[in-house]
Write a structure and sequence with these properties.
By secondary structure, the protein is α+β, with helices and mostly antiparallel strands. The chain is built from 2 helices and 3 strands. The protein has a 3-stranded antiparallel beta sheet with strand order 1-2-3, covered by helices on one side.
Length: about 80
Amino acid sequence: MIRLDISARSVVITCDACPYWSAIQLERADAEQSGARHEALVHPDSYDFRQRIAAANHRRRARHAGSEHALTMSMDVLIVD
C-alpha cells in the first residue's frame, strides 16, 4: 500500500511492499503522481492507490463545485440588490 506522510513543508511517499523505496515531494499533487507512478510500474496488478486518489480528487472537485455555485449565487444576490 502506498502511503503519504504529509507535513507543512513536504510529502513523503512510501510503499509497504517495497521497504527500500520512498520518495519526497513538495506538493501533494506531485506526491500523488509519484505514488501512482510507482504503483503502476512496480505493482501493475494493484490499483488501490490510484483508485483512492481518483476518489479523493472526485470528492474535492464536487466540494469545490458546490462552493463555487454558492459563491455565484451570493454574488448574484449582491448584484441584484
